[in-house]
Amino acid sequence: AQSVTQLGSHVSVSEGALVLLRCNYSSSVPPYLFWYVQYPNQGLQLLLKYTTGATLVKGINGFEAEFKKSETSFHLTKPSAHMSDAAEYFCAVTPDRGSTLGRLYFGRGTQLTVWP
Amino acid sequence: DVKVTQSSRYLVKRTGEKVFLECVQDMDHENMFWYRQDPGLGLRLIYFSYDVKMKEKGDIPEGYSVSREKKERFSLILESASTNQTSMYLCASSPLRKAASGQETQYFGPGTRLLVL
């Protein structure tokens, strides 16, 4: 069974500080990997995704993530946090590259708080 | 822009009622999904559909059913609502995956927050 682990259900940073949200997955083959963000009272919005090619992926709002196969990780970073980054972040994987269904397995989410 | 709409943002129902949650997407996507979101549990897949009149159970289908009579519309049905179905329900859609092109991006609706009393 696929699993996605997000370390830390809550992360707090000061405005301007580095944001690091951790995601590890279990998969027998390299999956497709995603980060979604959910602002209060909204649905999920894609931040970035890794499919093939370059392992450092850049997304919207200054976020980026690096796929590390040896560590089975896909951590999300942003060099300098902004108040508007406060939201819940979800890591997700599509484990089966042979499938056309594209179902995702989500982690439990990390709530990011940004202090002024 | 892809648009996924859900019929209600907030819904209050009584225990035992039959509840319909509607989802419509305007991008001609083949795949559609229903999730429920609960604090600390993330998103859990209830049902998904990859074609009209086709459906597959997700991880937590008990107490739910779905209907997909038209490609753009995917309905979630709570046959007899119970208090433990109080939750946020999210609908998503995605195009049919093409090999090696990474088409699995799912597009989400704004969610329906359901309260069952």
Explained architecture:
The complex is a heterodimer of chains A (about 120) and B (about 120). Chain A has no helices and eleven strands. Chain A is an all-beta fold. In chain A, a hairpin with a 4-residue loop joins strand 7 (about 65-70) and strand 8 (about 75-80). The radius of gyration of chain A is 14 Å and the shape is globular. The model of chain A has no long low-confidence stretch (mean pLDDT about 90). Chain B has no helices and eleven strands. Chain B has strands at about 5, 10-15, 20-25, 30-40, 40-50, 55, 65-70, 75-80, 85-95, 105-110, 110-115. In chain B, the strands form two sheets. In chain B, strands 2, 4, 5, 6, 9, 10 and 11 form a seven-stranded mixed beta sheet that branches. The mean pLDDT of chain B is about 90. The interface of A and B includes residues 42, 43, 45, 94 and 99 of A.
Q: Average pLDDT value of chain A?
A: 89
Poorly predicted segments of chain B: none
> How many helices of chain A does DSSP assign?
0
Global structural class of chain B: mainly beta
Largest sheet report of chain B: 7 strands, mixed
How many helical elements of chain B?
A: 0
SSE order of chain A, one letter for each helix or strand: EEEEEEEEEEE
**Topology pattern of chain B, helix = H, strand = E:** EEEEEEEEEEE
The fraction of residues in strands of chain A falls at over 45%
Largest interface: A-B, 26 and 32 residues
Distance between the termini of chain B: 37 Å
Strand-pairing-aware structural class of chain A: mainly beta
Distance between the first and last residues' Cα of chain A: 41 Å
